[in-house]
Design a protein that fits this description.
The complex is a heterotrimer of chains A (173), B (628) and C (122). Chain A has six helices and eight strands, in the order H-E-E-E-H-E-H-E-H-E-H-E-E-H. Chain A has 173 residues and is α+β, with helices and mostly antiparallel strands. An eight-stranded mixed beta sheet of chain A has the order 1-8-7-4-5-6-2-3. By secondary structure, chain B is an alpha+beta fold. Chain B is built from 17 helices and ten strands. In chain B, the strands form two sheets. In chain B, strands 2, 3, 4, 5, 6 and 7 form a six-stranded antiparallel beta sheet that branches. With 122 residues, chain C is mostly helical. Chain C folds into two domains: 89 residues, Orthogonal Bundle (Helicase, Ruva Protein, domain 3), CATH 1.10.8; 31 residues. Classes of the chains: A alpha+beta (173), B alpha+beta (628), C mainly alpha (122). At the B-C interface, helix 12, helix 13, helix 14, helix 15 and helix 16 of B face helix 1, helix 2 and helix 5 of C.
Chain lengths: 173, 628, 122
């Protein structure tokens, strides 16, 4: 009798394990960063891409309803893919599009912008990638939607597509 | 193309024989003969033979660079050296499964011909249970992971093998490891068969002990080879990362080591039979779970094969069916011995083996839970956590201390009962010396951590005891002495290595020199060369110590084309006392190179001691085979 | 012979002693980066990885150390940014209670079974 209870208990436990493992097989393995609710943008210092003048985030994130911070590089292929979307977003006058050039060669970056067009109101550089880390990003491309109180409303990891642009437009209203 | 065809049809034939053997052996089971019919042997042989031919068919497809074969296309390239074309056969998911199948069919055949002294019913049952596993693998292979998929038009070039996998140690690591895993399948089948045939006895214990040793030896060497490869090839100077795939090989090893000790108790005192069976089942289940975890894409690791949930589902179902199957058999057929319950005395070898099992099962549970918990947590609460070295160290290290101490007492106890001998002066001296050494070391490195002091003392003490036992006059139990000495040396080397290792990471340009505590590194020059399928940048470095003794180290950066990868090859100078390890990496866009220099004392003793650990086991094996 | 062996060991240990004094920032950076996962890699720590993320992360860790943050604070900072996933040392909280406690529990249960076996029929 005791044996039967033990057997039943083990089978119950194993069924539980089976279900969990089965479910986890269907889960994606890619880590999507959690959109941390309402985090405030940290202050940071950077340099303007063209003028090479030092500038702080306080000066950049000033005077607009919304800001879109886009982390990009010339060596990043998906950045190329999302560029049309960025150009589209730049047409919205209530938003300031800021480009953060990540670990890039200035010549290549300039070529990228010249060839594909410049959607950004301002481009700043993150030469060593440390600013991106302090922002909680981990790759390129990544896009942050920030409101006038410097709170991060939404974060997109990976290239923007039509769906994400729709979402952004909804937020910007 | 021909090799491919032969490979494919041989596989089908092998599958046919694997099914055919079932009715034939059941018939043999039921008849009155005391011996196994020759037909059974032949079919088992043919099953193995055709899988072998199939395996050769795949190897030849690789050697001939037959890129119409999907597996060859995905994993090989015309510029690959011949040796690595061959080893590429088993360096991928499909090929490695074919290797599993090869060893499964080989081992059951060997089991059949080597088990003549055992009762017929038991042998047939072992065969039948093993066939369940074999057929499962055949189905898995043919349905989800066929190494013989062909497509037209035949591509002219393949997608290439990962250059990191082009290494001699890694070439033989899978076969050796699989011999260990698959060996445990025989133990599994044989144990279940012994339960059903009511053949659990000293005779059975003596017979199965051989298989346990074989499996254990291969698993030990397999793990060792994997670590050696990681150390020499991966370029970070580490040899164990508590990576899920590494853990997956360690878990059956804990189980198998426990089983190895347990079977001795079964043989000598006819007790612990239930626990032995449970361990046998658990070992193989862990091997199978390991296969599942590694190949299903469920884990995030450097070592995983390509992700494929379909394969994962198949293995998962197969695994749980096997577990259910073995549980049912165990509960239905196993009756604890009605004979007098064997009393185990506190001060006996059986008790110390119980303690050994107790601790090994604890270590097993730490590794198992650490590896698998993130999966459960994520499904249940959508939260992702990482479990890595800090977790394992925190939970294992404190328990290592009593384990080491028990190990210094246990092997010297007698079976049944030991008298409490007078503690000899020698033992006390050794104990005090261990303590003293440990305190000296702690003082020198400037960290006085109680756990570390005790741990180091325990490691030294065990080391001294095993050395003392080794040189004692008694000639029996050489294998145990060697293995235990190997183990104590392993723990000691790992400890001392981790305490006294130091490293320096700097960016250097050609011509620059960096001096630190005891040595200096000079980046002398760069050499560019070309090899068969890569270009290389070799850095010439001079390491000089305070006494002006210098050595040259030449780490290499290899730039492969198919696929485009840059790998870093460390240069390591190995002596008996230390390893000097140097690796360099490109710093993007600069003439600087990021240089990592590590000074690692006693490194080679880690390998030597693991070798000794396995050799001790081999001694035991040869002794039994010789006795027969 | 045994005594000789012992002396040899002591001799070598003195020769290879390195003084691990108070860890400087450089060593601390390495120590911390060994415990931080490289988020864009397949199962590598920031210390082991040569990816952009890892290299930048190492710089950030160094920067924070130079700003005066303690080791523990840096872990907290990174966990705050990236979640528990980034550290290899899982925090001991409600969610990880089973993770940390279950092995110990099993150890105790195992011990109980063994002691029962040894004590029975005394």
């Amino acid at each position: 009798m005791k044996n039967k209870i033990l057997l039943f208990g083990i089978i119950l436990f194993l069924s539980f394990c089976f279900v969990i493992l089965f479910k986890s097989l269907n889960n994606s393995n890619v880590y999507v960063p959690k959109t941390v609710s309402e985090k405030t943008l940290v202050n940071f210092n950077s340099k303007d891409f063209f003028s090479e003048v030092e500038i702080s985030s306080n000066e950049i994130f000033f005077g607009k309803e919304f800001y879109i911070l886009n982390i990009w590089s010339s060596w990043c292929l998906p950045c190329r893919e999302e560029h049309p979307q960025l150009l589209q977003l730049s047409k919205n006058s209530s938003v300031k599009l800021i480009g953060l050039n990540y670990k890039d060669n200035p010549k290549n970056a300039k070529k990228f912008i010249d060839t594909l067009g410049n959607p950004y109101s301002i481009i700043i550089i993150d030469e060593k990638g440390t600013i991106s880390i302090e922002l909680g990003a981990y790759g390129v491309p990544e896009t942050y939607i920030i409101n006038k109180d410097k709170k991060i409303i939404k974060k997109f990891a990976g290239p923007l597509n039509d769906k994400s642009v729709k979402e952004i437009n909804l937020i910007l209203k | 193309m021909l090799a491919h065809q032969i490979g494919y049809y041989s596989l089908i034939l092998g599958f046919f024989f694997s099914i055919l053997i079932i009715p034939v052996s059941i018939k043999n089971f039921n008849n009155k003969n005391k011996v196994i019919d020759n037909k059974v042997f032949s079919i088992s042989f043919f099953q193995f033979f055709f899988v072998l031919v199939s395996f050769f068919g795949l190897i030849l497809s690789f050697v001939n660079s037959d890129f119409g074969n999907e597996t060859v296309f995905n994993n090989s390239h015309t510029t690959k050296p011949l040796f690595y074309k061959i080893s590429g056969t088993w360096g991928n998911h499909e090929g490695s499964l074919l290797l599993w199948l090869l060893v499964l069919t080989l081992f059951i055949f060997i089991f059949l011909i080597k088990s003549n002294s055992q009762p017929k019913k038991y042998r047939i049952l072992t065969l039948l249970f093993q066939q369940v596993i074999i057929i499962g693998f055949f189905l898995f292979l043919l349905k989800t992971s066929n190494p013989f998929n062909y497509f037209f038009p035949v591509p002219k070039e393949g997608l290439g093998l990962n250059p990191i996998l082009q290494d001699p140690a890694l070439a033989i690591h899978p076969p050796i490891l699989y011999l260990g895993y698959v060996g445990s399948s025989i133990i599994f089948s044989a144990s279940l068969a012994a339960v059903v045939a009511k053949h659990i006895s000293t005779v059975w214990a003596k017979h199965i002990k051989l298989w346990i040793f074989v499996s254990w030896i291969f698993l030990t060497f397999g793990i060792m080879l994997g670590s050696i490869w990681a150390y020499y090839e991966l370029g970070w100077g580490g040899f164990w990362f508590w990576d899920p795939v590494e853990n997956v090989s360690l878990m059956p090893w804990f189980c198998l080591t426990a089983l190895l000790h347990c079977i001795l108790v079964l043989e000598k005192r006819s007790t612990l039979s239930s626990w032995t069976i449970i361990l046998s089942i658990a070992t193989f289940m862990l091997s199978m779970s390991g296969t599942f975890l590694v190949r299903s894409g469920i884990l995030n690791s450097v070592h995983t094969f390509a992700n494929d949930p379909e394969r994962g589902i198949f293995i998962l179902i197969f695994l749980f069916m096997l577990i259910l199957f073995s549980l049912v058999i165990f509960f239905v057929f196993h009756k604890e011995n009605d004979q007098k319950i064997v009393k185990i005395n506190w001060l006996s070898k059986e008790a110390s083996i119980l303690f050994n099992n107790w601790f090994l099962m604890y270590f097993l549970s730490v590794v198992l839970i650490g590896t698998v918990y993130p999966i459960f947590l994520e499904v249940l609460s959508s939260e992702k956590i990482s479990v890595g070295p800090p977790f394992y160290h925190k939970l294992i290290v404190p328990f290592l201390i009593p384990f080491l101490l028990f190990m210094s007492i246990g092997p010297n106890l007698n079976w049944i009962k030991s008298k409490i001998k007078k503690v000899r002066i020698k033992i006390i001296i050794l104990f005090l010396i261990s303590l003293l050494l440990s305190l000296l070391i702690s003082k020198k490195i400037g960290s006085v951590n109680l756990i570390n002091i005790v741990l180091i003392s325990a490691a030294f003490y065990l080391f001294f005891i095993t050395v003392k036992d080794f040189f004692s006059k008694k000639f029996k139990n050489y294998s145990q002495k060697i293995s235990h000495f190997g183990f104590s040396l392993l723990i000691l080397s790992i400890l001392l290595n981790s305490i006294f290792s130091s490293e320096v990471i700097i960016n250097l340009k050609v011509g620059e020199k960096f001096s630190f505590k005891k040595e200096s590194i000079t980046f002398e020059s760069i050499e560019n060369t070309e090899s068969k399928n890569y270009r290389s940048i070799i850095g010439h470095f001079k390491i000089e110590d305070k006494q002006k003794n210098s050595i040259q180290l030449k780490p290499e950066l290899r730039i492969y084309d198919q696929p485009f990868t840059i790998t870093s090859e460390a240069d390591i100078k190995t002596t008996l006392y230390y390893d000097k390890f140097l690796v360099m990496n490109l710093v993007k866009g600069n003439e600087y190179f990021n240089v990592r220099y590590q000074f690692k004392p006693f490194m080679i003793w880690i390998w030597i001691s693991t070798l000794l650990l396995g050799i001790g086991g081999m001694f035991s094996l040869f002794k039994r085979i010789y006795e027969k | 012979m045994k005594l000789q062996k012992i002396f040899l060991i002591i001799f070598f240990i003195f020769n290879f002693t390195q003084i691990h004094s108070v860890e400087n920032n450089n060593e601390l950076t390495h120590k911390i980066s060994k415990n931080i996962r490289c988020l864009i890699c397949q199962g590598q720590s920031v210390y082991d990885s040569q990816s952009d993320f890892a290299l930048s992360m190492k710089l950030v860790i160094e920067k924070k150390l130079n700003e005066g943050l303690k080791e523990k604070e840096i872990y907290e900072y990174l966990i705050d940014q990236y979640g528990q996933w980034i550290t290899y040392d899982p925090e001991f909280n409600q969610k990880t209670l089973i993770l940390w406690a279950l092995p110990i529990l099993l150890f105790i249960i195992g011990g109980a079974i063994i002691f029962r076996k040894l004590i029975v029929l005394k």
